[in-house]
UniProtKB/TrEMBL annotation:
Gene3D superfamilies: Zinc/RING finger domain, C3HC4 (zinc finger). This is Uncharacterized protein. PROSITE patterns: ZF_RING_2. It comes from Arundo donax. It holds the Pfam family zf-C3HC4_3. SUPFAM superfamilies: RING/U-box. InterPro entries: RING-FYVE_E3_ubiquitin-ligase (IPR051728), Znf_RING (IPR001841), Znf_RING/FYVE/PHD (IPR013083).
Length: 89
């Protein structure tokens, strides 16, 4: 005798079995961090274009390259208004 309610064309037991079968067929993957060597230059690379070095700072503390930052009115990282731009050397 089943304790599951029976509805026309639907059975909770059938749904459970179907779900576990599809879960078992999903391949298992593991996440891994990127190689440490790739992170060395990322701290000095512009977060907008990812091709030039950061050489422009805003009062919020975030930095970009001068090409990307010259026309910005709002910091792309924290959304604060940019009131001053400081050239870094």
């Amino acid at each position: 005798m089943s304790t599951w309610p029976q509805y026309s064309g639907c059975s909770a037991l059938k749904q459970t079995q179907s779900t576990s079968t599809s879960y078992e067929s999903v391949p298992k993957t593991t996440a891994s961090a990127p190689p440490q060597d790739s992170d060395i230059g990322d701290q000095q690379t512009c977060p907008i274009c990812w091709s030039q070095a950061k050489n422009l700072a805003f009062l919020c503390g975030h930095q970009t390259c001068s090409d990307c930052g010259k026309n910005l009115k709002v910091c792309p990282l924290c959304q604060r208004e940019i009131s001053e731009k400081i050239k870094l050397y």
